[in-house]
Write a structure and sequence with these properties.
single chain; mainly beta; 4-stranded antiparallel β-sheet; 55% strand
Length: 148
Amino acid sequence: DKLVRCWDMEQNKTIRSYHGHLSGVYDVAIHPTIDVVVTCGRDSSVRIWDIRTKAAIHVLTGHQSTVAAVKTQAADPQIISGSHDSTIRLWDIRVGRATAVLTNHKKSVRDVVLHPTEFSFASGSANSVKVWKFPNGEFMRNFDGVDA
């Protein structure tokens, strides 16, 4: 329904709705140190919302297709998005623009995951898993044997 909803789990009801996506929402991330919610979806955008006021802070554009995954990390502060356009973008929350575009994938990026102890992340597509180093997205390695 193009909405992101914040739920009160005790009363089982919506307490906030974030309006703005033009199509389906695919992923949501809450920033670990800043009071923002980050969303992405079929409209090729990543949106940053103030978690309390529901105000849109930034609409991050640049992907050419569905944005399937979004993650946040506190160090820079930074957002990582993976898209069906086969790219990953690293975004600076403060200025609301991409600081890097990673183009090593040949197929749609389906998900991104942060490493719990290293300053790195992995991205997955239908035929590859790649590992990248923060903060600039330097390519580190491929995982071999990924075939589906």
